[in-house]
Amino acid sequence: MNTEGNGYTFAFSTVMVVLVATALAFAATALKPAQDLNIKKEKMQYIMRSIGMKEISREESPAAYKTYIKDTLVLDDQGTEIGKGAFAIDLAKDKGKHPIFIAEKDGQKFYVLPVRGMGLWDAIWGYVAVDENLNVKGIVFDHKAETPGLGGDINRDFFQDRFIGENIFSTNGDFQKLSVIKAYKGGDDKTDGKVDAISGATLTCNGVSRMLMDGLKPYETYLKTIKK
Amino acid sequence: MSDTNKEGLFSKSNIKLITNPLNDDNPISVQVLGICSALAVTVQMKNAFVMALSVTAVVAIGNVIISLLRNYIPSRIRIIVQLVVAAALVILVDQILKAYSYDISKQLSVFVGLIITNCILMGRFEAFALGNKPWPSFLDGLGNGFGYGLILMVVAFVRELLGSGKIWGFEILGDPLKKTGVYASGYVNNGFIILAPMALILVGIVIWVQRSINRKLIEK
After folding, report:
1. Nearest Cβ partner of A148 from B84, B96, B194?
2. Cys-Cys crosslink for A50: which of A140, B65, B178, B220, Cβ 3.0 to 4.6 Å?
3. Which residues have C-beta within 8 Å of that of residue B142, sequence separation ≥ 6?
4. Is residue A188 in some structural domain?
5. Total number of domains in chain A
6. B98 contacts in chain A (CB < 8 Å)
């Protein structure tokens, strides 16, 4: 067989492309449900961790989500309620829609507010859980590709715990941004909304500040109505 | 090569296909292939290990496929065919990891895609699989994957230990934040070693050490 002729070369490439394309398309379709389920469970895991269940595994999360999440809301940019079904909202794609998850655990009410922004290298995202006084009760961050050991540490407890107790509104009742400050001198001051940054991760931490500012702003009007 | 049929599956020359890439013909330190990913994934040993496993699987299976097709591949488009085989396998690995091993797929994120551009794949397809039978090609793929993994683990060991004070994720030097263990005496992690250039320097040191021990590798 002459494997060097033009006809053979064309035939070979055509058959190869069709076979490979079919195989990949089949694999992608067949595995899609399992992949989507993982992403869904992970989102539930983030939300559960933000309301204080830090050790929850991905597999346990759907059951816990069902137990503790009592209601969900979707707000538009002005803060008006436009519907339910917050879980289906993907912040990366659905612009102008801001989901809220309302959880009740051990008699305490939590409002979980998802945020999304950019770190140094790629996307970062987080879930901020506040109580009825708008004190931060828990915060969970994660990232796609921040530097391991530096910016990548935003998803670790030592950093996330620094936010606990900070308030989204300042003492005189105005919206204040939660922000991450390099070489923060305020110590344990829980009224100013500021926490210490991770050394060596300034750009990622600036991204976290920006994400919290832009991400929480649309909730301001709504949060004012629930504030006790 | 006509008597290879009578050879045992693990004959001397076949075993050599696995052991050679570990030292004398190491893909990273001797063939100088696959350096790019060696820099990217060696910050933590766990990631380096999974990366080495994935590369081994892809090279071994890819080698077999290329070897089976070797008499049918038109030589003018052989590089494209190799690329298609590599890319298809990598996408499959990525999809399967996402579906059944989500945590690992998250850790490896972009690196799985980077396997496609790993020069070891194309290097072995072109240099070995195109001219050899499937079984030796499979062993050659395994051997090169192991050789790659060996260097990766050495580099990752040093980088994880000096860069973050851990081995395989365990804080063996103490907690840098609470200042326990060696950190109590003022030791700090070397943030520099986490950056990619230090991996290159470490690979250089590995090559130096290897050639000092194995003198036949030194070019005259």
Report:
1. B194
2. A140
3. B18, B56, B59, B60
4. yes
5. 1
6. 31, 35, 38
The single residue listed with the structure tokens 């195989």 is: A23
- Mean pLDDT score across all residues of chain A: 87
pLDDT of the residue at B3: 45
Residues of chain A with a CB closer than 8 angstroms to some CB in chain B: 3-4, 8-9, 12-13, 16-17, 20, 23-24, 27-28, 31, 34-35, 38, 42, 58, 144-145, 147-150, 158, 200
> Which two tokens mark B45?
């040993």
Instruction: Tell me if ipTM is over 0.85.
Output: no
pLDDT tens by residue, B17-47: 888 888 888 888 888 887 877 777 888 888 8
Establish if A100 belongs to a structural domain: yes
Compute the C-alpha angle A113/A115/A120, nearest 5°: 155
**Domain span at residue A186?**
69-226
- Which element (helix H / strand E) includes A179? strand A179-181
Domain that residue B64 falls in: 43-213
Encode pLDDT of B141-165 as tens digits: 999 999 999 999 999 999 988 888 8
Quick: pLDDT tens for A85-137.
888 888 888 888 899 999 998 888 999 999 999 999 889 999 999 988 888 89
Q: How many domains does chain B have?
A: 1
Q: In this structure, is residue B14 part of a structural domain? A: no
Using an 8 Å CB-CB cutoff, list chain A residues near B74: 3-4, 8-9, 12
**What residues of chain B, 43 to 62, have a C-beta less than 8 Å from chain A?**
43-44
